[in-house]
Amino acid sequence: MSDKNALIQPDRGQKAIAIHLVDKDGLDTFLKERTPAQRAALAAHKFEADGYQYAIMPDGDDWAVAAGVANTAELSSWCMSKLAQKLPAGTYRRAGGEPGPAIFGWITGQYRFERYLSEPDEEGPRVLLTGEPASISAITAEAEAAMLVRDLVNTPAEDMGPAQLEAEAENLHKTFRAEIRVTRGDALEHEFPMVHMVGRAAARSHAPRMIELEWGDPKHPRLAVVGKGVCFDSGGLDIKPGSGMLLMKKDMGGAAHALALARLIMHNQLPVRLHLLVPAVENAVSGNSFRPGDVLRSRAGISVEIGNTDAEGRLILADALARAGENEPDLVIDFATLTGAARVAVGPDLPALFTREDATADGLLAAGKAHDDPCWRLPLHEGYREYLKSEVADINNAGSSGFAGASTAALFLDKFVPKGTDWAHLDTFAWRPTEKPGRSKGGAALGLRATWHMLRQRYDKLEG
């Protein structure tokens, strides 16, 4: 992931192409203020200020851009993204105002995943100027975090296994002087038995591990961030069909979100004691794969009957959540590409959100709405716990009915989070099946900004 600071620069009056943002209500006034040549150019483009529509028009000895937006008074993160993708390389400024939140989409609109291309795009950057230089660092950090998620998810499993997730955590450890602990081998089997069981069938190069990182003042509220790190999911012995494996490089999307959120927290010096946990495995098939009908012990001492080996993500999360709860955190947040049922319920764009506390849900939903990263709350309905009953163990990892799959998965996790702990679970897709302005097809950060801004609202008040 390249440094994106160069894409946003302070406006010091340097030469730049003007971008005029226009909404439907202001179109007539805008046209009246244009020269005859400009009106002719806009008419030739059939410019009607539709969203993402843009047109080139003469501007003295140079040229300018007219771009349609929904509301010039309330810009979205994405309203200038198409311009960042389509305009020629060069320097631009918004005429008559600041780009504000559109800076985020200006950066992410220029994202390209080119790691495996022999001839990557050589076109130069589109630079956007702002008269609010103090905002550049924070919003650029957000964009870089979102693109980190994209990079990690887009990378194939051969090059993004448990060891590579560990390397990403090592980078955070070195950059921010955090404490790191990685548990593998015999110690993993003893301390995190379900992580070990899920990952033990993988090749030695993709051996399972628990990655933990701690940072911040121990006097500050303890925040645990957990990310599901299934680097590839074959389904195990309940093997997926070939079509079901095509996107399974993205099954570590929860870990990617957790790592990116940890980076934001440490970069911005949020006053918390951060505990990052990434259980990293590959759910492979071999002679020592765990089996349907097996009963696994967990770190929490709860026995789990395996109803389906393809419901492995909740197993490794259960051990991680139990570990997180041992330190009496103020809040636990987990990200996971957990269920297809969540995608059926809310589609690819919306993370399914589960929380114990209404106030935590309200904070996440409000932050998502304010920062163009919406979530949708689903129920932790007590009546569905019966779907997880087992006759031979404390709980089954797969629901006994075809109903409420996202909720039953969340209820499984809920059993491993200590009672009374404030906890939020985001069942996110981490993938965008079709391109939208500023949001490329492929790996996607969904729920990251909502969570980050909720945390800022919750903990920034502690500063000073």
TrEMBL record:
GO biological process: proteolysis
Pfam families per UniProt: Peptidase_M17, Peptidase_M17_N_1
Keywords carried by this UniProt record: Aminopeptidase, Hydrolase, Manganese, Protease
Source organism, top-level taxon: Bacteria
Stored PROSITE patterns: CYTOSOL_AP
InterPro entries: Leucine_aapep/pepB, Macro_dom-like, Peptidase_M17_C, Peptidase_M17_N_1
GO terms of molecular function: manganese ion binding; metalloaminopeptidase activity
Domain (Cytosol aminopeptidase) ranges: 308-315
GO cellular component: cytoplasm
Family, per entry: Belongs to the peptidase M17 family.
PANTHER family for the chain: LEUCINE AMINOPEPTIDASE-RELATED, PEPTIDASE B
UniProt-recorded name of the protein: Cytosol aminopeptidase
Taxon lineage: Bacteria, Pseudomonadati, Pseudomonadota, Alphaproteobacteria, Sphingomonadales
